[in-house]
Amino acid sequence: MSEIRIKIPEEIPLPFLKRKIDELIKEEEVKWVLFEKCKEEISLSEEELSELEKAREGAWKETKKKYEL
Prior knowledge:
This protein is mainly α. Helices cover about 75% and strands about 0% of the residues.
């Protein structure tokens, strides 16, 4: 598993922040599992998979921008 080091302002309570980060990680993990399962189920071609990955990356880019990740 990868690790990320971040600087946290003193006024932000750590338990709250940790809970939010854990929730985000669980959500992303579920999304990836579902994404991989869908790829297997619908048997997309390499070109279709590439387009799907581009769409997923675009959506993730918007999420990162929204949460300033």
